[in-house]
Amino acid sequence: MTIILKTERLTKKFGGLTAVDHVNMTLSKGELRCIIGPNGCGKSTLFNLITGTYKPTSGRIAFKSKDITGKPVHIIGRMGIGRKFQVPGIFNQLTVYDNIRVPFFRDQRRSLFLKPRKDSDIHQKITALLQKINLDDKACLPAIHLAHGEKQWLEIGMVLARRPQLMLLDEPTAGMTAAETRKTAQLIRNISREEKMTILVIEHDIGFVREIASRITVLYKGAVFKEGSYETIQSDEAVRKIYLGKSR
Ligand SMILES: Nc1ncnc2c1ncn2[C@@H]1O[C@H](COP(=O)(O)OP(=O)(O)O)[C@@H](O)[C@H]1O
Ligand SMILES: [Mg+2]
Prior knowledge:
The chain is α/β, with parallel strands linked by helices and 248 residues long. It contains 9 helices and 10 strands.
């Protein structure tokens, strides 16, 4: 199996606090992986290291066998790592359709000297994407009028439009209703299966993790505490103690 992402002894310190502590993690191409762990255990910091937002204190990160340690955000983004933040970064005044169109225009600008893609091609791609994220019937609505869950799906669509090879999702179901959470789990599973995209998702909701049924990495105090299937993790006494027994 091809390895797409590998961290080696990845460490980030903030003054005296070690937020990420010698993390060794390997992600295979096409894999869907959940990262769980109590609040403040370093999940978002790990994402910030992978995307180049923070520079590690020590350790290395390789993406597609290339060393990306300490590289700037835009370079890592261009290499194929896409990220969705906890707070949606959508354009409220634009329609749902135009929100999805934005990343396509950015791509066009980058390839100024190449033959521009036909508008009809882009339209087709946008329509297919809107169907995938279940927002095709809301294409003409300004994004501000979407429900909370729909805004999150729209942003997943915007990340998808850039066709990353690795997609990072930081708590995509935060603040969602139970029904929205279930739908989001289905959406992410579909993207993983149909697009064959590698997805790394930080999640708090254990119902979501069960639904996704992927391999799980448990972080605790910045370090990898346990890794395994949902069943393995769920039945692990030590994991239960640090995490599963507690609510949000
Ligand atoms: N920019 C920062 N400066 C200082 N401390 C930080 C910074 N970002 C995160 N931390 C600290 O690092 C630890 C891990 O935070 P974080 O990665 O956000 O945890 P999680 O996403 O698992 O809830 C926390 O103790 C947090 O307060
Ligand atoms: Mg976080």
